[in-house]
Amino acid sequence: DGGITQSPKYLFRKEGQNVTLSCEQNLNHDAMYWYRQDPGQGLRLIYYSQIVNDFQKGDIAEGYSVSREKKESFPLTVTSAQKNPTAFYLCARTPLPGPGDYGYTFGSGTRLTVV
Amino acid sequence: AQSVAQPEDQVNVAEGNPLTVKCTYSVSGNPYLFWYVQYPNRGLQFLLKYITGDNLVKGSYGFEAEFNKSQTSFHLKKPSALVSDSALYFCAVRALNSGNTPLVFGKGTRLSVIA
Question: Looking at beta carbons, which residues of chain B come within 8 Å of A43?
Fold first, then answer.
């Protein structure tokens, strides 16, 4: 899994419910990111975190929330305020930048569907 | 602001023929460029990166990319396409020495290699 695990792989949400997507990494990397993928729109940044207890909004943060209480965990909550949550969600990690790093390592994703 | 353009939503190529997937970028200063590949319902996998040095970068699975500063391009190439290369390809960029600022991704290009 490249040291980063997303769960569950598939998730179904009823209208009005909050759901939380899990992202865990075991390589002690500082930075973690959440992206949303929709067909034809590429990857859009939701939130990112570079240190514990700190995170920044990305381009489409409305209707989402995150926490970073531990270095290895960066869960994403999709709230009822997110009107169109059906999408593929990707989590990524990276160490501090340098010539030896390979950018991001991605988890295998969570497909969220509203039913 | 950083941006990436992948002008082709879809590229079709016959097996054994050379392939090119185009990417142009905009960034302040020198760029840090990546190509990733995504197979269905999976996360993105690293293919190759450019930081500095030779303009021709070699990566995984026989892929290479050519950095052209004057044209602000980073096109992905392979001399002989395989059916197994069929996938979704993403170009990404951020400014070099910008810390852990998030990568900006293009919208992706779907490559279809026909036997």
Answer: 44, 90, 105
